[in-house]
Amino acid sequence: MNLAYESIDECIRYERKLYNPNICNVNFHLHEEFEIYFLISGDVNYFVEKNMYPIKYGDLMITNNQEIHKPSFQNDHVYERITLQFAPHIVRTFNSPSLDLLSCFLNKPKGQQNKITLQPSQIKEILRLFNQIENLKPHAGYKILKLNYLIEVLVLINIIFKDVNRSENLSSMPELLTSLLDYIDMNLEKDLTLESLSTKFYVDRFYMGRVFKKYIGSNIHEYILFKRISKAKQILSEGYSVTDTCELCGFNDYSNFLKMFKRTVGVSPGKYKGNLELIDP
Fold first, then answer.
1. Is residue 256 classed as helix, strand or coil in its secondary structure?
2. Alpha carbon of 218 to those of 109, 128, 209: distances in Å?
3. What is the number of other CB atoms lying within 10 angstroms of the CB of residue 139?
């Protein structure tokens, strides 16, 4: 087994944080790490791809590196959450014939089955493991323990995921917003300016923007950008060139595509394509 223990803190990132929605807005995320999100307090819906999940204390949200996601605040109450992000390759060595630790993240439709509602005993156990990670002190075995706690968390989540009710409990959205999200998702290579979308749906672009902002918590332009970057990652993984990927994802300006991809993903499209053997599809 050849694990780069010196990079454990880069591969496993734990954070417990308070937010004041009046001061801080959380935009869309699309990162290379897989993420486990645990709500402690607050009135929040959680948006993944085209679905909006109502969540409460004890709910887990799990997302992989192809799913755009964000919390959507329902009021100005302060909220608190825990996130545990990890590079998928760091745990593959520990898979067994009976359990793939990434199964709950990958063996489901994109943007679906992201919410896991925990029972009281499961909440207690997951918080125990989170607290173990949070309270780790630097010492000789620190990095081994951090990896071990992550694996324990993943074993627990996968066991729960297999038994969870598959019926989705989603927040309702206006028909305009549902249709808009579906159209964007299916037409990322086309003109998706506010003017073109306004014409397509026969609705004032300012009204359309307000509806999007009210329910999603961000603007349409940012959503389209993240969806295009997500599609670019997928296309690059299929072997397409960076130039072809730019065109297929609807970026009209090549230099802008390079800039936006690096800003969002952290590396250039060329480097991402070259490093795909280290990244789960």
1. helix
2. 24, 34, 9
3. 8
The CA-atom distances, in angstroms, between 251 and each of 136, 191, 242, 259 are: 44, 9, 11, 11
Q: How far apart are CA 113 and CA 51, in angstroms?
A: 10
Torsion-angle region of 17 (φ positive above 0: left; ψ -120 to 50: alpha; else: beta)? beta
The number of CA neighbours under 13 Å toward the Cβ of 62 is: 25
Work out the burial of residue 211: count CB atoms within 10 Å of its CB; fewer than 13 is exposed, 13-18 middle, 19 or more buried. middle
Q: CA-to-CA distance for 272 and 278, rounded, in angstroms?
A: 10
Answer positive or negative: Cα dihedral of 30, 33, 36, 42.
negative
pLDDT for 58-113, tens place per residue? Answer: 899 999 998 999 988 888 788 899 999 999 989 988 999 999 999 999 999 998 99
> Which stretches of the chain score pLDDT less than 70?
1-6, 23-25, 165-169, 277-281
For 261, what's the count of Cα atoms within 13 Å in the CB-facing half-sphere? 29
Tokens of 225: 């950008």
In the chain, the largest separation of any two C-alpha atoms, in whole Å, equals 64
